[in-house]
Automatic annotation (TrEMBL):
Protein name as annotated: long-chain-fatty-acid--CoA ligase
Origin superkingdom: Bacteria
Provenance organism: Frankia nepalensis
Pfam families registered for this protein in UniProt: AMP-binding_C (PF13193)
Sequence ranges assigned to domain AMP-binding enzyme C-terminal in this UniProt record: 101-179
Enzyme class: ligase
UniProt-listed Enzyme Commission number(s): 6.2.1.3
GO MF terms held by the record: long-chain fatty acid-CoA ligase activity
Listed InterPro entries: AMP-bd_C, AMP-bd_C_sf, ATP-dep_AMP-bd_enzyme
């Protein structure tokens, strides 16, 4: 897995007790560069969502396989390399766009410590990319001009990405919201992106300081 910090995690095999044969032979479907995992089955899975049969039905197939929504690469020998969550894919003008691809470019900009890209609704393209970044310690100590960094991010993306993949906005924030110590909350960022866009287009509306 290539993270926004440029860290590559090693490929992994399913846990002991997982149905690896069915996973590789029947439960992987290809969609562009990476296949989607159709599901996993094994002793480590939970039985369902308490008090929410609709969510359980959506998450599990009739055969008991959990639909993970992961995009993976199947390597020789059966190891799986995680690529991205399907729900983190953007749909820009009908094109599938991987947030991770944009995040790698954004994270390469000097001064950026960590980057996360999410979709924002757009009346013309359906969705557009929006980037949120934190700055490196050195950049912060140097009183980095946040507006200049945001402009630099867009400029670098225009040089290295197709136009429809270029973020339509970039924001410097003190910290990225997380659901765990290492997992960024993309749901919160999507709300931030919507709120900031609304505020920018309505001078009477203010966005709470992040």
């Amino acid at each position: 897995m290539d993270t926004a910090l440029g860290i590559t995690l090693p490929p992994m095999h399913p846990f002991l007790g997982m149905d690896m044969t069915s996973l590789l032979d029947e439960r992987v479907r290809r969609d562009g560069e990476h296949p989607f995992l159709g599901g996993v089955c094994g002793l480590s899975l939970f039985a369902g969502y308490v008090g929410d049969p609709a969510a359980t039905a959506e998450a599990f197939g009739d055969d008991g396989w959990l639909r993970t929504g992961d995009r993976v690469t199947v390597l020789p020998g059966g190891a799986l390399r995680f690529a991205e969550r399907a729900k983190d894919m953007l749909k820009v003008s009908g094109e599938n766009v991987a947030a991770a691809e944009i995040e790698r470019v954004v994270a390469s900009v000097p001064g950026v410590r960590e980057a996360a890209v999410v979709a924002r609704k757009d009346s013309v393209r359906g969705e557009v990319a929006v980037a949120f970044v934190t700055v490196t310690a050195d950049a912060g100590q140097a009183a980095l001009d946040e507006a200049a960094l945001e402009e630099a991010i867009i400029a670098v993306c225009r040089q290295r990405l197709a136009d429809f993949k270029v973020p339509r906005a970039a924001y410097v924030v003190p910290d990225l919201p997380r659901v765990t110590l290492d997992k960024i909350s993309k749901g919160v960022l999507r709300q931030w992106a919507a709120d900031r866009h609304a505020a920018e287009n309505d001078p009477t509306r203010q966005v709470a300081s992040r």
